[in-house]
Design goal:
With 144 residues, the chain is an alpha+beta fold. It has helices spanning 3-6, 20-30, 50-56, 59-66, 70-74, 78-81, 95-105, 124-134, and strands at residues 8-9, 34-38, 44-49, 109-114, 117-123. The chain has one domain: CBS-domain (Roll). The two termini are 25 Å apart.
Length: 144
Amino acid sequence: MKVEDLMTREPLTIEPDAPVRTARDLMRDKGIRHLPVVDGTGRLLGILTDRDLEHAAFMPALADHLGGPANRLKAPRVRDLMTWSVVTTAPDATLVQAGLTIFERRIGCLPVVADGRLVGILTDRDILKALQKDRPDVDPDAFP
């Protein structure tokens, strides 16, 4: 099975200058944990994850403690929190390759890129659901 057979096509995305609040609300409302960050042409720049948002919750307290630029820390943009260096995969990669990459890198998803543009996203849960077909003892909902 190939990544393109399982990936979510045309995933929700956000631009780097969007307010983090907008990204947080979008992720919460749509129930997603990973939000690819793209430029105006669809080129992948990075990714914003639920973990990035958790870390951002500490920013206002840090600004108060450090006496830093509180205005920037209290209203950050996506570009301030996102992960810039993203591990990706291609649509024609095998599911085994993608699964091993997710496992070895300890990441929750792989943006799928073709010709420099984001074409999909594959998550650890997508892979677990595919495995469940062959292994009924695997419960993808048992993992947070």
